[in-house]
Amino acid sequence: MKSITINGSKRESVGKSATKALRNAGEVPCVVYGGDEPIHFSAEELAFKNLVYTPDVHMVVIALEDGTKVNAILQDIQFHPVTDRILHMDFYQTFDDKEVMLEIPVRVTGNSKGVRNGGVLRIVTRKLRIKAIPANLPDFIEVDITEMKIGHKMYVSAIETEDFKILHPDNTVICQVRTSRTAIVDEIDDEEEEGEEGAEGAEGEEGAEAPAAEAPAEE
């Protein structure tokens, strides 16, 4: 998995006033859990741009100014309800021999038979939560939809790997190919048009038979 380095500084004070002062200075207060003790640090808000505002998932290397480097993953993030600025971030420290849980994006590949026949692909689960050691964490989970026909669903059980464990039930749907609503409407319209034409034809036949049904004129 790709990694991003965040340069930060240890926080000497974690009180409300100190936290407010950091935010006013454009810094984001952060905490790293999972080690012997929590590590409180701060970094410039812009430093998290490529970590937060992206669909990709990254490992994080937190490089502190005293030379300390900590490997971690993003655990939680808090945004301001009005401005959407980052208020606080929680990280979880990782170790080479210790499994971690992380949500990994799903990437769909292939050209579905069902889609080629007019169906619509619907992605149901865009991220899957998995458990693995850091070295086995993938950048994404790839699923091939080439053989999927209209009405078919792909389940988590279709993913085969020994590198990580998927923390979802086997019957969790990843994606499905559904019949296009437009195609259904067109089909109904065609049937209605055929029905209308048949009705008009029937009326024409009745009109043709009408003269024969008239009573004979009196002599």
What does this 3D model show about the protein?
This protein is an alpha+beta fold. The protein folds into two domains: 3-94, Ribosomal Protein L25, Chain P; 101-179, Ribosomal protein L25, C-terminal domain (RNA Polymerase Alpha Subunit, Chain A, domain 2, Beta Complex). The chain is built from four helices and 13 strands. The protein has helices at 16-24, 49-52, 113-116, 181-209, and strands at 3-10, 27-33, 39-44, 59-64, 69-79, 86-93, 100-109, 119-123, 127-132, 141-144, 153-155, 165-166, 173-179. Strands 1-3-2-6-5-4 form a six-stranded mixed barrel. Strand 5 and strand 6 form a beta hairpin. It is elongated, with a radius of gyration of 31 Å.
Q: What is the gist of this entry?
A:
The protein is of the alpha+beta class. 21% of the residues lie in helices and 38% in strands.
Itemize the secondary structure elements and their pairings:
Layout: E1 3-10, H1 16-24, E2 27-33, E3 39-44, H2 49-52, E4 59-64, E5 69-79, E6 86-93, E7 100-109, H3 113-116, E8 119-123, E9 127-132, E10 141-144, E11 153-155, E12 165-166, E13 173-179, H4 181-209
Parallel strand pairs: 1-4, 2-6, 7-10
Antiparallel strand pairs: 1-3, 2-3, 4-5, 5-6, 7-9, 8-13, 9-12, 11-13
